[in-house]
Amino acid sequence: MLFLQLVYNRKCEFGFPRMLGPNDSAQSSTANKIGAEKYLLCGIETSLWAVYDIVIPNITIPINLGATSMDFTLSEIKIANVNVPKLQMDLQQNKPVTLFLPEASIQLSFVWKFQQNSYPYTNDRGTGDLIVQNAVLSATADSQQEKETCPGHMIISVLKTTMDYEKLRIQLKGGQSWIFQSLIDVILDSLQNQISDFLASVLMNGFIGLINGAFEDGRRQRLLSNGQFIKDERYVDKVQVGNGYISLMFSGYTYLKNNLTDEYLTQGTNSITMNKFNAEMQMAVKDEAFNNVYYIFHKYQNSYSGNNFKAIQQPKLRFTNTGALVAMLVEANETQVEIELIAKPKLFDDLSKVIGRISFEYQAYSIDTVDGLDSEALLTQVVQHMNEVAEQTGFQYNYALMVDIRDFQPIFDPNERVMRLVGDLPQECLPY
User: For 262, phi and psi rounded to 5 degrees?
Assistant: First the structure.
């Protein structure tokens, strides 16, 4: 495989020579409300095991008993079970996103203890369980770029959390003191009245943490290389939110690993309209992102020259209303010939479950007629060679978790110079 392998870079410093802005996006992913809800719910379900490892801080609840008071503390709090069957989102233009998890159920285990604050300073301890049934958890979240600390990174922050529930049940075990036995109903009432905000904050921050983890361990820090080339996955802006859709904007550039200043794409000339189609998900790539790949492989590996011809320039792709054409200038028998090929998108998933390649299947379209040159034979050779190279190269796409873009429909936009892969997500989460 000539192209790219997965390499994780957990450092903030990428080493790229310049910061990228919103107009430097050669690649984007957009989901409408239904697609975003499906995707995030699958993401939570797939990584739900990590919720059980969340470190939950102790909570101390003061209980005023009139003549005396006590501090009731829950520690060693662990999530024993959680079920999140649904997810809903509120997506409004230029506003923070609100996530809702209706019909959720949660079970926590904990160690409790209390300390009376006045004579006779009674204390006691035991274990317990907290069970919440048919809860509605919500979180309002926003994103921001880490321009100063980690250029090209992005983090999602929780602004507000709430929890409503149909039933909350607390079971306290142990406890031998007379004051505990006599005040257990008061203690339970105080816990129920004060713990819902705490639970909402802990759980929703945990779920947002899972989403942030996907950003951190996935796209935002993913530099992909075979030792020679790098696919740049930096974010160029915060999450874009519109009325009923949400978008992520990436660099999409390809570099020679040892020469990051050799930048093919022109600064500030790439941008992609987000909500072009009302599909559940669309993934867009600029024509220049493909031409960037042609540039790298032509300049550094001479990939597009064959046994009987030489590529004088890199291939150059352009989109039409119905597809794509690739122009080539080759030399054969000391004669330069202009060739155009039809390029039909071909998707590969041979790198990993969530890393694929967008390449092309080439067919003959046109060739200059030159005296003394068998143009048709040359055209056949060029088509055959380009298809052989296409099997090993292409634009690497880290497609979204549990999304099989091989089932998506390519749509071409020559005005915006973009190819979009458009489709709906399956009803069931794909294995990851």
Answer: -80, 80
Task: Give the residue among 15, 7, 6 at the shortest CA–CA distance from 151.
Answer: 15
Please say whether the beta carbons of 157 and 142 come within 8 A: yes
β-partners of residue 71 are 62, 115
Question: What residues contact residue 8 under an 8 Å CB cut-off, 6+ apart?
Answer: 217, 221, 222
Residue 12: its pLDDT value, please?
A: 53
Rg, the chain, Cα only: 29
CA distance 275 to 382: 38
- Is residue 40 within 8 A of residue 99, CB to CB? The reply is yes
CA distance 51 to 42: 14
Query: What is the pTM (predicted TM-score) of this model?
Result: 0.83
In terms of Cα–Cα distance, which of 86, 81, 285, 335 is closest to 203?
A: 81
Contacts of 416 (CB under 8 A, 6+ apart): 272, 273
Segment-wise mean pLDDT, segments of 10 residues, the chain, 432 residues: 32 65 86 91 80 85 83 91 93 91 93 90 90 91 75 78 86 80 76 78 75 52 56 84 89 84 75 73 92 94 95 97 96 95 86 73 95 93 97 79 76 92 84 61
DSSP sequence for 327-373 = EEEEEETTEEEEEEEEEEEEEE--S-SS-EEEEEEEEEEEE---TTS
Cα(360)–Cα(354) distance, integer angstroms: 19
Alpha-carbon distances, residue 395 vs 214, 287, 346 (angstroms): 22, 11, 11
3-state secondary structure (DSSP) of residue 399: coil
Cα angle 237-239-245, degrees, rounded to a multiple of 5: 135
Query: Which residues, other chains included, contact 199 with Cβ-Cβ below 8 Å and sequence gap of 6+?
Result: 106, 108, 130, 132, 163
List of residues 6+ apart from 419 with CB closer than 8 A: 284, 285, 287, 319, 324, 345, 410, 411, 412, 413
Query: What are the angstrom distances between the C-alpha of 373 and each of 28, 329, 333, 379?
Result: 44, 15, 8, 11
CA-nearest of 13, 32, 42, 24 to 429 is: 42
